[in-house]
Design brief:
Rossmann fold, putative n-type atp pyrophosphatase, domain 2, 30% helix, 24% strand, disordered C terminus
Length: 230
Amino acid sequence: MQPSEHISRFFCSWSGGKDSCLSLYRAIKAGYSCASLLTMIDETGKHSRSHGLFPEALKSQADAMEIPLRIAAASWGNYEKQFKEQAAFFRSLNVLHGVFGDIDLEPHREWVVRVCRESGVTAHLPLWKGVRRTLVQEFIDTGFKALIVVVNTKKMPEKFLGRLIDTELVNELESIGVDACGENGEFHTFVFDGPLFKKKLDVVKEAAIYKDEYVFLPITVVIDKKEESV
């Protein structure tokens, strides 16, 4: 992916979590321009896939970064069809590149590359084959802030729900055998501040929701207005 007038614009597959955020950050730092974030939510339109985030929380992230957000609903059964439709929409706007936060799970990369290719866009994975611990440390050291908002209780203790992603937490997770990035599905995160954010998000934690082996932390967010009064 070489920056130029013709290919510098991309859409970013946006989960709201740390990996999609770091991939977006790397692409922007490399000189590319993000035309839009893209988030797939469940067929009810109430929550994002996997991370269980409210559309309003995702919109708050996009507004804080001053990047447009496109949301599309899909079931697992028609997910690929709906994703291809979104990719085709971006292609119609001459946004011919997509950025994804996958790290090293080959089936994920294969799906992303194939679906984008079949939709007429090119997939880019800025984090691909990075060392997991190194990537999460880069996220922390760069100044991003994120909370754990989903825990798979079969893979890690529920007590980590709501914790801030920092070096102390990562050390603690690794000490009990949990992957630093949660790349094996142990946990998911929500980013609320960092270099891409023009305004910090004030996170309000709601009561935990339990579903099978997963526990979700519903959150609502508001943009911190303090700087506007300075």
